[in-house]
Write a structure and sequence with these properties.
InterPro entries: Peptidase_aspartic_dom_sf (IPR021109). The chain is an alpha/beta fold. Helices cover 28% and strands 25% of the residues. The strands form six sheets. The protein has a three-stranded mixed sheet with strand order 3-4-10. The protein has a three-stranded mixed sheet with strand order 5-9-8. The protein is elongated, with a radius of gyration of 42 Å.
């Protein structure tokens, strides 16, 4: 009985021929493979994240990162809280690509609510690209404070405080759609309609009553509108019963139609122009002025004036 490596080497180099019923000794690694004793390969469970709340803002996913020594908050998230500027700090951040970033400051003792627990967290505020999927990064400080235990195989993250435990399931969270912000935009419609209504509503009560159909007993009418609606109602009833005669209008006056500028040029007061512009006249003498560029050559200006004069009736 020989070792498998020596046996295979002699077979390949033709120093030994493969004989029937020959026994080859396998080492522990090969035996484990053939007997299927190795643990199965599992898929990447993805990043571990937890939902949390800061103030009145809910975050569906806050990244739990064991590789980060700080808790990071983007500046666009910080502005949503409407508080003063963060406290300046001399801390500088070295990213994975070796580049250096200087944060805008630090925010201390931020109350972060995770399920039923409320924790004090210090955040570094950094100007960075907006990431609405996972806007917050919770580093080792937060994970140590919350005694976080992560079971990568089961996809579970446990948060333990004062012998109380909350468990988050990463696989279960991945089944829910993350694209919810567009659905929530429906909540803005009523507010937008209300603002537009007040912006474009008619302030004149007479015009408003004529344009819209109102009843004098409607609760939305103020005193001015009720007075106008009542007056219009009385006039309508009087018109139906009495039918006053129409008085013909006197339209005997005469008027002359204004002639176009081509037939009767008007005298205009021309204002001074910038150095790159100048006036030229399509009519004689010095009538029908138009503005052209002063950078045109003599030939270009002459051709332009000729074309404009041919179409001056269309110009007006």
């Amino acid at each position: 009985m020989s070792s498998y490596a020596k046996f295979l080497k002699e077979i390949i180099s033709n120093k030994r021929k493969l004989e029937e019923f020959e026994m080859v000794k396998l080492n522990e690694e090969y035996s484990a493979i053939l007997q299927n004793k190795l643990p199965p390969k599992l898929k990447d469970p993805g990043s571990f994240s937890i939902p949390c709340t800061i103030g009145e803002i809910n975050f569906d996913k806050a990244l739990c990162d064991l590789g980060a020594s700080i808790n990071l908050m983007p500046f666009f998230v910080f502005k949503k809280f409407g508080i003063k500027e963060p406290t300046p700090t001399i801390v500088s951040l070295q990213l994975a690509d070796r580049s250096i970033k200087h944060p805008r400051g630090v925010v201390e003792d931020v109350l972060v609510k995770v399920d039923k627990f409320i924790l004090h967290v210090d955040f570094i505020v950094l100007d960075m690209e907006e990431d609405y999927d996972m806007p917050l990064i919770l580093g080792r400080h937060f994970l140590a404070t919350g005694r976080v235990l992560i079971d990568v195989q089961q996809g579970k993250l446990s948060l333990i405080i004062n012998d109380e435990e909350v468990i988050f399931n990463v696989f279960k969270a991945m089944k829910h759609s993350n694209d919810e912000k567009e659905v929530l935009m429906i909540d803005c419609i009523d507010d937008l309609v209300d603002r537009k209504f007040h912006a474009f509503r008619l302030d004149d009560p007479i015009e408003n009553c004529i344009t819209n159909s109102f009843d004098v007993n409607e609760q939305i009418l103020d005193e001015r509108h009720k007075e106008v609606v009542g007056y219009l109602g009385e006039k309508q009833r009087g018109f139906v019963t009495k039918r006053e005669k129409f008085v013909p209008l006197d339209i005997s006056f005469s008027y002359s139609k204004a002639k176009p500028s081509i037939e009767k040029p008007s005298t205009l007061e021309l204002k001074p122009l910038s150095s790159h512009l100048k006036y030229v006249y399509l009519g004689n003498p010095s009538t029908l002025p138009v503005i052209i560029s002063s950078y045109l050559t003599g030939l270009e200006e002459e051709n332009l004036i000729r074309v404009l004069r041919e179409h001056k009736r269309a110009i007006g």
